[in-house]
Amino acid sequence: MLTVYPAVFHHENNSYWVEFPDLDGCQTFGETLSEAMRSAQEALGLYLSTLEENNLKPQPPSDIKSIQCDANSFASLVSVNVNLYRRKTKPVKKTLTIPEWLNIEAEKKHINFSSVLQEALKERLGL
Questions:
Q1: Which of 24, 67, 82, 105 is a plausible cystine mate for 75, CB 3.0–4.6 Å?
Q2: CA 20 from centre of chain
């Protein structure tokens, strides 16, 4: 699930700190602009997934044109795939059925059924 929020990048003392005006307390930093953007994506993903785990809804993203910045700051959109930050990774048992011949061939090659199913589901879901 790709999510986009505006962020304000502040340039101070040869580094950057980033805040998300719509997400109270969601801030990060980076020594370079690239590092600050990567940190902003991670902060946004963790923040939104934590809200989701606590059944809280985030404030909707503002229009980036409405964000006011000073001379040492600029607004940028930050996008993140929130699925990458979800912590609900507790295994869930699933029962499935496959043809006997396929099971025999897969077992001969020591294929891990759980791994194959996870990979296939992620591919099908575009994750």
A1: 67
A2: 15
Answer for the pair 89, 26: CB distance below 8 angstroms, yes or no.
no
Q: How far apart are CA 48 and CA 56, in angstroms?
A: 9
Q: Is 89 helix (H, G, I), strand (E, B) or coil?
A: coil
Name the residue among 93, 55, 58, 62 with its Cα closest to residue 76.
62
Give domain limits for the chain: 2-85, 91-127
Does the domain at 2-85 match CATH 3.40.50.1470? Answer given as no
Q: Give 78-107 pLDDT, tens digit per residue.
A: 999 998 887 666 677 888 899 999 999 999
Q: Count Cβ neighbours within 10 Å for each residue of 41-75 and write b for 16 or more, e otherwise.
A: bebbbbbbbebbeeeeebeebeeeeebeeeeebeb
